[in-house]
Amino acid sequence: MAKFRQAEITDEIIEIHSKKHHDAYGSPRVHRELLRRGVSCCLNTVAKYMEAAGIAANRRTKFRLSTTDSNHDHPIAPNLLKQNFHTKTINEVWLTDITYIPTKEGFTYLAAVADLHSRKIIGWKTSRTIDSQLVVAALRDAITFRKPSPGVIVHSDRGSQYASGAFRQRLSQHKLVQSMSNRGNCYDNAPMESFFKSYKTEEVRDEQYETHEQATRGACDFIEHFYNSVRLHSSLGYLSPIEFEHHQTRALSLNSV
Questions:
Q1: Is the pLDDT of residue 12 over 90?
Q2: Greater confidence, 146 or 4?
Q3: 30-40 pLDDT, tens per residue?
Q4: How do beta strands 177-180 and 121-127 pair?
Q5: CB neighbour list of residue 51: distance below 8 Å, 6 or more residues apart
């Protein structure tokens, strides 16, 4: 009976790991996914069965190119976060950054905006060029989607794109407050770095994009159909960002009754 049970759970683990974007799941996320499927087992059992079956989280990353150009004469905003990533609600702090995607045509650049509270990507854009228009377009989408009240903090690195007049003007227009990391300190924007690491590991790593359009479709698939709606986040109690926000909304509704 025990061997049958192990085989049954192992089959479920293999099925989870074989799904697109799920091969980076370690035993904690696999365990939570099993529970969501109604398979009752403990974390240690999952870890043991994964090891016995030779299943491990694939965490290879090979991307090291920096997209930050902080050698410019634009104004630098103060660091308002100082690595304090605790928030009480959505639309309190937004994080934003840029990464690159190799294609056979050259690099495609992805700018994304995340809500720190739920880790949800609320705005994103791709471009063949890494300029202020790219980051302004991603911010514009986030503003359109969220309709933030004045005072939301928007935190980025010190790159010339985020220090540009066009980006600062868009922030000022909507009464958003700019914050920037200290020079050369990636930990000041750690949750955004974590998103890009997941994106590179779980989507980009094994792809060979022919064109900019193909890379953009890959980004859309990952963000809209997996990361926001499906991927389990340990920082959110192993909920997806959308699930987490729905739980928060329901809790607020119940508290207001």
A1: no
A2: 146
A3: 888 888 888 88
A4: unpaired
A5: none
Q: Which two three-digit tokens encode residue 199?
A: 């994106």
Half-sphere exposure of 19 (CA within 13 A, CB side): 14
| 3-class DSSP state of 74 | coil
Q: What CA–CA distance (Å, rounded) separates 201 from 210? A: 19
Residue 155's contacts (CB-CB under 8 Å, 6 or more residues apart) are 80, 81, 93, 94, 95, 96, 116, 179, 180, 181, 188, 189
Q: What is the Cα–Cα distance from 25 to 32, expressed in whole angstroms?
A: 10
Identity (one letter) of the amino acid at 8?
A: E
Three-state SS for 89?
coil
How buried is residue 62: exposed, middle or buried, by Cβ count under 10 Å (0-12/13-18/19+)?
A: exposed
Q: How far apart (Å, rounded) are the C-alpha atoms in residues 26 and 10? A: 14
**What does the buried/exposed string (b/e) look like for 218-251 if buried means 16 or more CB atoms within 10 Å of the residue's CB?**
bbeebbeebbbebbbbeebebbbbebbbeebeee
Q: Indicate whether 130 pLDDT > 60.
A: yes
State the DSSP H helix or E strand holding residue 119, giving kind and residue range, or none if neither: none
Sign (positive or negative) of CA dihedral 136, 196, 80, 248: positive
Note the pLDDT tens digit of each residue in 174-232: 999 999 999 878 889 999 999 999 999 999 987 899 999 999 999 999 999 999 999 99
Locus of tokens 């739980």: 247
Query: What is residue 157's three-state secondary structure?
Result: coil
Q: How many helices (H) and strands (E) does the chain have?
A: 9, 5
Candidates 88, 58, 93; CA nearest to 191 is 93
